[in-house]
Specification:
By secondary structure, the chain is an alpha/beta fold. It contains 13 helices and 20 strands. It has two domains: 314 residues, Adenylosuccinate Synthetase, Chain A, domain 3, CATH 3.90.170.10; 96 residues, Orthogonal Bundle (Adenylosuccinate Synthetase, subunit A, domain 2).
């Protein structure tokens, strides 16, 4: 394994949680490199379902070290709740298995209020954020106004920077958004309290990762969301506020690109996205509803119904190239069981022009006509199949066709949500 990175190749929700959980068995350390608690990784163990938001999925295995890296924005209240919820399920979180970068930025109460007020003000033109302050926190980070974990450990510094920030934020809240101002002392006391609860987890994660790699440990890097939600390379402005792409792994954890070995692109057997924004293969019909219900396509974090559509090979091929994927993992193959015909998008048309890449022009992006290749469905169950040879022939034909179009092999095929509903392909 050495250093293995898991990347979502679509609009997120590809099933990264399960794949990370499977790979953790051979890992010594699992590190999350970007995003916030707007992410939701679902892992099913036996009859129990776990939904993780900030803590790496590897925490469900005993004896593994889990890192929340510098590139993650952290809401302390949400993190404490996640730790408490896991404890109720018998999953112990302590200073021996969870490590949080001192350089990671904090999500503050004013970030949440601004996020929600901004979406409300946009009305029908809203982006569709989770309203949890992620984008506002990253905005402050980039404008050099952010508060970091390390600031919590230096009370005087935290107090001074919070006071300065709140003076500005309260003006914006009151004058622009018409919201009530926030109380300085209340926030100060609350966050100092968070610090007392969480400080045992704070550490120099960059040095920790460096030593693990130099010692030849097996390291697994975990991202949130997917390539098409990348703030630079996604369907802007309907994107997240960080880089779920491979560069985000290096920046968010302080690892040089030369130390990355295997890069696994996670690919759902069809396509989904949550929230507003372009979606060329979306199915606003009975087939889209069938995929949603069969695949239980509802957001792990928000519960929102996911928009569903056919497999978009243009999106995944672009993602595989951009991230230097060395192999792919296919998830939710079983959701397509019983379909007589299946479509694969191999290109787009717009105003008489053909595209083999995702355009960035707004009008084109919003009005792309997918070019489909139709294949036969297998009309047989694949749920729980654990051997590639036992898959229906037409299911194998579908996988081979995707592999040929994407010019990459699938090393993992998921045939259900549980750990043992998996095919490892030689």
């Amino acid at each position: 394994m050495a250093v293995t990175t898991v990347i979502g190749t679509q609009w997120g929700d590809e099933g990264k949680g399960k794949i990370i959980d499977l790979l953790t068995e051979k890992a010594d350390l699992v590190a999350r490199f970007q995003g916030g608690h707007n992410a939701g990784h679902t892992v099913v163990i036996g009859d129990r379902q776990f939904i993780l938001h900030l803590i790496p999925s590897g925490v469900l295995h005993k004896g593994k070290k889990c890192i929340i890296g510098t590139g993650v924005v952290i809401d302390p209240l949400s993190l404490i709740k996640e730790i408490d919820d896991l404890a109720k399920e018998g999953i112990t979180i302590n200073e021996h298995n969870l490590f949080i970068s001192k350089k990671a930025h904090l999500i503050m109460p004013y970030h949440r209020v601004i996020d929600q007020a901004s979406e409300k003000k946009k009305g029908k033109k809203k982006i569709g954020t989770t309203g949890r302050g992620i984008g506002a926190a990253y905005s402050d980070k980039m404008s050099r106004q952010g508060l970091r974990i390390i600031d919590l450990l230096e009370k005087d510094v935290f107090e001074e920077r919070l006071r300065l920030n709140l003076e500005e934020k309260n003006v914006i809240l009151r004058e622009f958004y018409g919201e009530n101002p926030l109380d300085f002392n209340r926030i100060l006391d609350e966050y100092i309290g968070f610090s007392e609860t969480l400080k045992k987890y704070f550490t120099d994660t960059e040095s920790m990762l460096k030593q693990a790699i130099l010692d030849g440990k097996q390291v697994l890097l975990e991202g949130a969301q997917g390539v098409m939600l990348d703030v630079d390379h996604g369907t802007y402005p309907f994107v997240t506020s960080s880089n779920p792409t491979i560069g985000g792994a290096c920046v968010g954890l302080g690892i040089p690109p030369s130390k990355l070995d295997t890069i696994i692109g996670i690919v759902k057997a069809y396509t989904t996205r949550v929230g507003a924004g372009p979606f060329p293969t979306e199915l606003n019909d009975e087939m889209g509803e069938k995929l949603r219900e069969s695949g239980a396509e509802y957001g792990a974090t928000t519960g929102r119904p996911r928009r569903c559509g056919w497999f978009d090979a243009v999106v995944v091929k672009n993602a595989a190239w951009m991230n230097g994927c060395t192999t792919l993992a296919l998830t939710k193959l079983d959701v397509l069981d019983g379909l007589e015909k299946i479509n694969i998008c191999v290109g787009y048309r717009y105003q008489g022009k053909t595209y083999d890449a995702v355009p960035c022009e707004t009008d084109a992006l919003n009005n792309l006509e997918p070019i489909y290749e139709e294949v036969d469905g297998w009309m047989e169950p694949t749920t729980g199949v654990t051997s590639y040879g036992k898959l229906p022939k037409k299911a194998k034909d579908y996988i081979k066709k995707l592999s040929k179009i994407l010019n990459l092999n699938f090393s993992i095929i998921s045939t259900g949500p549980k750990r043992d509903q998996t095919i490892f392909v030689d």
